[in-house]
Amino acid sequence: MRRFTCRTCGAAVTFSDSRCPSCETHLGFVHEPGDLLPIELVDDSSYLVVGHQGPPDRWWRCLNAAWGCNWMVPTGDGAVWCASCRLTRGRPDESSLDAVRAWSTAEAAKRRLVAQLHWLGLPIAPPSAENDDGLVFDLVYLPESVGVTGHRPGVITLDLREVDHNFREAARQHFREEYRTVLGHLRHETGHHVWRRLVVRQGALDEARALFGDERADYAAALESHYGEMHDQTPDTRPAAEFVSDYASVHPSEDWAECFAHYLHLRDGLETAAEFGLDTIGHDGTLPSMLERWRELSLGVDEVTRSLGQPAAYGVTIRPQIEPKLQFVHDRVSAVARER
Fold first, then answer.
1. Contact by Cβ (8 Å): 283, 293
2. Which residues contact 209 (CB under 8 A, 6 or more apart)?
3. What percentage of the chain has pLDDT greater than the value 70?
4. CB-CB contact of 294 with 270 (8 Å)
5. Beta strands, E only, the chain
6. How far is CA 78 from each of CA 74, 102, 177, rounded to the nearest angstrom?
7. Which end of the chain has fewer CB atoms at under 10 Å, N or C?
8. Residue 60 — very low, low, confident or very high, per pLDDT cuts 50/70/90?
């Protein structure tokens, strides 16, 4: 994540701020070019974005501003929701405060995902006649369900109970996961979505199958086998060295999605560290250089959180056997960025 400062007073502000904590200037995030800027109310509903170069002259706050969204919407594009919120097909009934709070938290994580994908050259948008790679999100609150997080073509579903720390921690331990977050779920499921764009359309299927396995393998049978074996093993069993997580070993498509998610983790983590002066050495843009810095940085961050009595922030070991898979992801993402 980039580092932001208030253009009015120079104080540090964060990606999610809608007001400067120092001088109280109202702020809005402009998705293109991806900056947090001061905004001034012009009339009852429209704003001037101070410092924005080019059209439009007037902006609206996203209709979800009351629930924490600080993104701006051009008044002339016919939309009332921002580039992130318009990807969500609905929100929980306002009569359920727990559901609304969970939805608001999940949307904050989704905005980080949408911004990162945009900066990497992988923007996502709703389906349309011109966009057969469209994507929407279903953020659902079903307290009595067995779990609904997953991906179907063009749809990512997130179980909003994942926002609850106790639920997420219990699931993390049950499934023997080192890392489980809302943002991690969103990045993983997005990995499934971009498979066609990054792998199939780039003519890289053979290379992908050589690394991850054949994604056409029976998925239901793979799940049944994995969870059957998992419950027969001791709780501290660790994933095989060639997988970034235990879940990655379920099926080739999950291995790809897990590697894609962890690639986004390390890219965002490295950028944030560099922006805040925590990584003074930096990397040269190649994956080996990035991995070298990420291993050192993530270890340091994990030790800091442990020093504060908290569990490891990341806790995942990127073993040498995983590097070719991450290199493949890096090459696919880089190829799309070069097409821009």
1. yes
2. 215, 252
3. 96
4. yes
5. 4-5, 12-13, 27-30, 35-41, 46-49, 59-61, 72-74, 136-140, 150-152, 155-159
6. 8, 28, 43
7. C
8. very high
Please give the average per-residue pLDDT across 143-156, as a whole number. 81
Instruction: Give the whole-angstrom CA distance, residue 229 versus residue 233.
Output: 6
Q: Which residues pair with 29 in a beta bridge?
A: 36, 71
Which tops the pLDDT comparison, 289 or 280?
289
Reference 325, options 246, 278, 261, 239; nearest CA is 261
Bridge partners of 36, per DSSP, are 29
Q: What does the pLDDT read at residue 14?
A: 96
* Run of H or E residues at 263: helix 252-275
pLDDT digits (tens, 9 = 90+) for 210-252: 999 999 998 889 888 877 765 555 444 545 789 999 899 999 9
The reported pLDDT for the residue numbered 297 is 95
Polymer length in residues for the chain: 340
Peptide bond preceding 56: is omega within 30 degrees of 0, i.e. cis? yes
DSSP lists the bridge partners of residue 155 as 136, 152
What mean pLDDT do residues 60-87 have?
Answer: 92
For residues 168-197, average pLDDT? 89
- Tokens of residue 241, six digits: 């060295």
Cβ-based neighbours of 149, under 8 Å, separated by 6 or more: 157, 158, 159, 162, 185, 189
| pTM (two decimals) | 0.91
Q: Which two tokens stand for residue 64?
A: 């979800």
The torsion of the CA quartet 211, 217, 221, 222, rounded to 10 degrees, works out to 10
Q: DSSP letter string over 118-175? A: HHHT------BTTBTT--EEEEE--TTSS---EEETTEEEEEGGGGSHHHHHHHHHHT
